[in-house]
Write a structure and sequence with these properties.
With 99 residues, the chain is α+β, with helices and mostly antiparallel strands. The chain has 4 helices and 3 strands. The chain is elongated.
Length: 99
């Protein structure tokens, strides 16, 4: 019997990182506050998961200003898009294999 979790990416095991990648995959870029609001998480919790995704090369960060206020936006990298798409495909294959 084939291992059903083959191909799953451990980085996306967490629901917040899964949510971040899902949001960023369908949006060109999203700012920190919008991500926090959409995912209903605290600043610290979101920041920790964003650092993890950035360190793995799955998202890129752009820090800028709107007037005098800082604005940090996030976008998916090409490698992040591939890794996440591969993870979703592995999930689909796992589900199909369980039927």
């Amino acid at each position: 019997m084939k291992n059903p979790i083959t191909g799953l990416n451990k980085v996306f095991d967490n629901r917040i990182r899964l949510g971040v990648m899902s949001i960023l995959l369908v949006n060109e870029e999203v700012n920190f506050n919008d991500l926090k609001q959409m995912l209903e998480v605290t600043d610290g919790n979101l920041a920790t998961h964003l650092v993890n995704l950035e360190e793995n090369g799955y998202i890129k960060v752009h820090k800028g200003f709107i007037g005098k206020k800082t604005n940090t936006t996030y976008a998916v990298t090409k490698s992040g898009e591939k890794a996440f798409t591969d993870h979703i495909t592995a999930l689909e294959n796992m589900i199909k294999g369980m039927k």
